[in-house]
TrEMBL record, chain A:
GO terms for molecular function: NAD binding; NADP binding; oxidoreductase activity. GO terms for biological process: organic acid catabolic process. Residues 2-161 form the 6-phosphogluconate dehydrogenase NADP-binding domain. Belongs to the HIBADH-related family. This is NAD(P)-dependent oxidoreductase. Gene3D superfamilies: N-(1-d-carboxylethyl)-l-norvaline Dehydrogenase, domain 2, NAD(P)-binding Rossmann-like Domain.
Length: 293, 298
């Protein structure tokens, strides 16, 4: 298929490369021109704006940091809507608030563009391996039409419901992972402070009811004290801010997520924002008299 | 107090007032009683009926009000309301002459207050954020605690007006700083309400007389204004608003979002926020924040 890709950061670059590898013709544009180079070298088409990407491909994908960026590249000047022909499909794979995703979908709809929200889980390793989990909200037929593109980037692809529903699922994902990272970090810090070997504790727990992907992957990196991102703490914090804002709007209590969000705030305040989320272990160590054993 | 006695030392000022709610209405009366030339604008003109009957001028738009006023005081609900009043169509900014001052006594985000101050500064219009603590009772008794964010010279000009409304006026710092102090105030106060709710929930669970517990605690180390006022409401199961819980809920969204932006962990406030979310979900937003007790009763 002819597909355009906007936003070639840590996640977007490998996702676009996987589309090329699967044989799709890919047009690219990114705000920072140097981030386009790996894609251009791999054979992608060079565009001067998001609008040009939309003129040259019937389907466009955006993967950008935050809601204002999504608004800018879709509805802003020289955005997707400016270049799109009627029936164009735009897939936003960024993580933004469900209500904002709905609003963008409505405004794109008014300009003849079908919008899907399709946030992902799996981090940079999942993006590189093409094994992302993709949660889709929006028109069912459009979702079927772009399925080959999703399959080039991800392994588990689920249409959750109408516009915004993908972002609701992503918010749920961030509740589970945010609280999960905190739980694993607390457990491993507690083990160390109690004089137990964290490596053995993790191994034992992996066989029982406390098994989780986070205990397996994040737990391992905590034990190795490997805090390189991965998924940066400030991005996890941003996602939890979205979640807490939605909970506030809906009148839904999220006490455990709220506690995790405050730990992420603490990480940002301590200058750990650029570390991986697993650096939460370091914050907890500071809160309990230093590194254990 | 006679009008002559109440008259501010610097003489009467032409003052505009917007926001004639539970707080604003008695505040407007105090300004008039202090001898200032008061005019008002109201989204619902009927809310100004009592003042108009006393001879206070009712302006057709915020812009008209600003054009005839040296100082306009606003006390409304949210950041968006203040922004619309200031820079919306026929807003205050269209009417203000250079040298005029907008004193906003609403509780809004510090960032919004700073942004408004900057926009006014380019037009030579002064800004004071002056949120208050003390509730309807403090407004009626003119004993409000007022936390001001402003340039010192601007605050000095409007201080006589604030002295007609409150007893304790503290200059916290530049524009926005008053709202920071107010956020701290809300965090401590609502967290204390939550602590009281949990205490009375525990006493109730034991089957102990809550009124006796309140009486005993009020004299000891746990004694506080919140315990006295809100504890009494909880014991009496009087959940009629004083301050509507939805307003505290709104304040928490602002202060928690700012804390996230700044990387400041607020673990207790985060939990209180969730209890407020549960309160809203239960449909008690227009009741008193003492309803935090009902959240714990499930």
């Amino acid at each position: 298929m002819d597909v355009g890709f906007i936003g070639l950061g840590l996640m977007g670059r490998p996702m676009a490369l996987n589309l090329l590898k699967a044989g799709h013709r890919v047009q690219v544009w990114s705000r920072r021109r140097e981030s386009m180079r790996p894609l251009l070298e791999a054979g992608a088409g060079d565009c001067a704006s998001a609008a040009e990407v939309a003129r040259r491909a019937a389907v466009t994908i955006s993967m950008v940091p935050d809601a204002p960026d999504v608004e800018q590249v879709t509805l802003g000047a020289e955005g997707v809507a400016d270049g799109a022909a009627p029936g164009h499909i735009h897939i936003d794979m960024s993580t933004i608030a469900p209500a904002v995703a709905q609003s963008i979908a409505e405004r794109l709809g008014a300009r003849g563009v079908i919008a899907l929200d399709a946030p992902v889980s799996g981090g940079e390793p999942g993006a590189i391996a093409g094994t992302l989990t993709i949660m889709v909200g929006g028109d069912a037929a459009a979702c079927v039409h772009v399925q080959p593109l999703f399959e080039a980037m991800g392994k588990s692809i689920t249409r959750i419901g109408e516009a915004g529903a993908g972002q609701v699922a992503k918010a749920c994902n961030q509740i589970v992972t945010g609280v999960g990272v905190a739980a694993v970090a607390e457990a491993l810090n507690f083990a160390a402070k109690s004089g137990a070997d964290g490596t053995k504790v993790r191994e034992a727990l992996l066989g029982g009811f406390a098994y989780s992907r986070i205990l397996e992957n994040h737990g391992q990196r905590m034990l190795e004290r490997n805090f390189r991102p991965g998924f940066k703490a400030w991005m996890h914090q941003k996602d939890l801010r979205i979640v807490m804002g939605e909970a506030h709007r809906l009148g839904v209590a999220l006490p455990a997520a709220a506690a995790a969000a405050q730990l992420f705030n603490g990480m940002i305040g301590c200058g750990m924002g650029e570390d991986d989320s697993v650096a939460m272990l370091k914050l907890l160590e500071r809160m309990s008299g230093g590194v254990g054993e | 107090m006679s009008v002559a006695e109440g008259r501010a030392e610097g003489g009467a000022m032409r003052v505009g007032f917007i926001g004639l709610g539970v707080m604003g209405e008695p505040m407007a009366h105090h300004l008039r009683a202090a001898g200032h030339e008061l005019a008002v604008w109201a989204r619902r003109p009927e809310s100004a009926a009592a003042l108009v009957a006393e001879g206070v001028a009712l302006c057709a738009t915020p812009s008209d009000l600003a054009a005839r006023s040296e100082v306009v005081i606003t006390i409304v609900t949210a950041s968006a309301d203040v922004e619309a009043l200031a820079f919306g169509v026929q807003g205050l900014a269209e009417g203000f002459a250079p040298g005029a001052v907008h004193v906003d006594m609403s509780t809004i985000a510090p960032a919004s207050a700073r942004a408004l101050a900057e926009r006014y500064a380019t037009r030579g219009v002064g800004w004071v954020d002056a949120p208050v603590s003390g509730g309807g009772q403090g407004a009626r008794a003119a004993t409000l605690a007022i936390m001001a964010g402003a340039e010192a010279a601007t605050l000095a000009r409007v201080r006589p007006l604030l002295e007609a409304l409150g007893k304790r006026i503290v200059h916290i710092g530049p524009p926005g700083a008053g709202q920071v102090a107010k956020a701290c105030n809300q965090m401590i106060m609502v967290s204390a309400i939550q602590a009281c709710a949990e205490a009375f929930r525990l006493a109730g669970a034991h089957g102990v007389d809550q009124a006796a517990v309140l009486c005993a605690l009020a004299g000891g180390s746990a004694g506080s204004r919140v315990l006295e006022v809100m504890g009494a409401k909880m014991v009496a199961r009087d959940f009629a608003a004083g301050v509507e819980a939805r307003l505290h809920h709104k304040d928490f969204a602002i202060l928690m979002e700012e804390a996230a932006r700044l990387g400041a962990p607020l673990p207790v406030a985060a939990q209180v926020w969730q209890q407020l979310d549960a309160l809203m979900g239960a449909g008690w937003g227009r009741d008193d924040t003492a309803s935090l007790l009902r959240v714990l009763e499930g």
